[in-house]
């Protein structure tokens, strides 16, 4: 006799066990692995380390974050942003200090995650996110240009064919990712026809062994800590910022929600593991993530397999991978750049409807990111510009209206708006001290006190009236405003 359905044990089968999903995840992981190889080699060169350091980092980051991360289908590996941060350290102190920095950076990311850094994402305006996405697309495209300058003419023909395949094939079938088809077709053609073009092998030596677990060979002293701590902190911030913003972008594309706190400490754990296995550290990669998501991947399996395939390809099949023409991978990344860019944001109709301040924020984020090649600086500048413009806009929404009582003995000032440093600076000039009667009431029923600057302004107003013998009463404050006013009133202005 079988048990009733309600009493049978329920086991949730992982989504990726479905044959169709499994095939999609495997193929997407393979395409991503192929795209990771030249990027990892290039970032190693930027950081000033052996290509093996970048390739090992991409393997350990992808495999670890597949388990610890909070955003399924997002790819983490060695990145240009981390390479730029750590390059000066490598030049001055060597690769062992780099590995120690990566471990410490991972520890700091775990600590920042525990402190709630992921919650700060809510303060990123949409215009900054759009600027971040557009800047990334531009940087991805610009990163491909060196592979298209001073190269044999067949490179351009191969690139054109690859782009045609990736544009046309999805219209016929999506069973196999178009980027994978383009890579296989172009590689087969160049080998069969004997076409001499730059290949992956020209970018640097590929590893022929597995990464080995070890402790960075640095002195465990306070001096070492003072050397690596600034770089570790910068790495932690840049890595988390890029990873969390990429996670938010994938959330929007896939209409799913991710655990940003888990992603934050997951990035930290991945970097700790990477440092102990001789990798240069990393974070989420927008380009490879877009390849993965656009290929249909939605689970952790594709992320895990991208790392596994990467290691298998460079260690076991390195001689084959080395033959892949760079033109094929450049074409893949150009398609990623085109798909990443938010074209709607620059359409004339959108720009006409969008408030000018929003456009300024987006353009400033893009400009600073592209100029500095640093996403963290670009996003920070974008947020600061947004804050300044917002404060300026809100400051003009405060009004002060004065009404004289019928008997002429009292004047009531009604203040409306949000009172903070930007809006309260001019508050003191909104009152008629010389001509007002002996009693003045300041009604804050439609206003809120947000900071000490406002309390100081109210104190200044009160002192100006009292110097003329006028009595001032402040009424209508809500609970928060009352608590802030009572705690600070009379303490912010010197008595002399």
Automatic annotation (TrEMBL):
Pfam families: STAS, Sulfate_transp
TM stretches of this protein: 52-68, 97-118, 130-149, 155-173, 180-200, 220-240, 308-341, 361-390
Main location: membrane
Subcellular location: Membrane
Membrane topology type: Multi-pass membrane protein
Keywords assigned: Membrane, Transmembrane, Transmembrane helix
Residue ranges annotated for the STAS domain, each copy included: 412-496
Protein name: SulP family inorganic anion transporter
Organism for this UniProt entry: Haloechinothrix salitolerans
Organism placement in taxonomy: Bacteria, Bacillati, Actinomycetota, Actinomycetes, Pseudonocardiales
């Amino acid at each position: 006799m079988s048990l009733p359905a309600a009493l049978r044990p329920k086991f949730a089968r992982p989504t990726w066990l479905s044959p169709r999903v499994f095939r999609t995840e495997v193929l997407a992981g393979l395409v991503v692995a192929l795209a990771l190889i030249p990027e990892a080699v290039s970032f190693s060169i930027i950081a000033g380390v052996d290509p093996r350091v970048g390739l090992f980092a991409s393997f350990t980051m992808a495999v670890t974050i597949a388990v610890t991360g909070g955003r399924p289908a997002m790819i983490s590996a060695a990145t240009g942003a981390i390479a730029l941060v750590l390059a000066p350290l490598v030049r001055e102190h060597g690769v062992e200090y780099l590995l120690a920095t990566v471990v410490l950076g991972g520890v700091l990311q775990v600590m920042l995650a525990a402190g709630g850094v992921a919650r700060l994402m809510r303060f990123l305006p949409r215009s900054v996110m759009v600027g971040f996405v557009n800047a990334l697309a531009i940087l991805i495209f610009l990163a491909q240009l060196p592979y298209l300058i001073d190269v044999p003419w067949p490179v351009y023909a191969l690139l054109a064919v690859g782009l045609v395949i990736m544009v046309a094939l999805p219209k016929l079938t999506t069973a196999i990712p178009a980027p994978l088809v383009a890579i296989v077709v172009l590689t087969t053609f160049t080998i069969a026809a004997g076409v001499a073009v730059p290949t992956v092998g020209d970018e640097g030596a590929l590893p022929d062994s597995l990464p080995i677990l070890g402790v960075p060979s640095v002195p465990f002293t306070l001096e070492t800590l003072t050397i690596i701590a600034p770089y570790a902190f910068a790495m932690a911030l840049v890595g988390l910022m890029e990873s969390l913003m990429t996670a938010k972008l994938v959330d929007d594309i896939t209409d799913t929600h991710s655990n940003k706190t888990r992603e934050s400490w997951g990035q930290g754990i991945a970097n700790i593991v990477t440092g102990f296995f001789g990798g240069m550290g990393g974070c989420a990669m927008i380009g490879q993530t877009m390849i993965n998501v656009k290929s249909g991947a939605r689970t952790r399996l594709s992320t895990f397999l991208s790392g596994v395939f990467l290691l298998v390809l460079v260690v076991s099949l390195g001689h084959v991978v080395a033959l892949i023409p760079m033109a094929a991978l450049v074409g893949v990344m150009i398609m990623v750049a085109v798909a990443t860019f938010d074209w709607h944001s620059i359409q004339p109709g959108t720009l006409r409807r969008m408030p000018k301040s929003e456009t300024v924020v987006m353009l400033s984020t893009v400009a600073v990111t592209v100029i500095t090649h640093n996403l963290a600086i670009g996003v920070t500048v974008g947020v600061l510009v947004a804050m300044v413009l917002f404060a300026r806009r809100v400051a003009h929404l405060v009004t002060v209206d004065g009404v004289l009582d019928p008997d002429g003995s009292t004047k009531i000032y009604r203040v409306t708006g949000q009172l903070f440093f930007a809006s309260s600076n001019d508050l003191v000039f909104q009152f008629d001290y010389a001509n007002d009667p002996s009693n003045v009431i300041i009604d804050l029923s439609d206003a809120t006190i947000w900071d000490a600057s406002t309390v100081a302004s109210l104190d200044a107003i009160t002192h100006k009236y009292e110097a003329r013998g006028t009595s001032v009463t402040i009424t209508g404050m809500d609970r928060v405003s009352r608590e802030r006013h009572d705690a600070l009133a009379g303490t912010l202005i010197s008595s002399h």
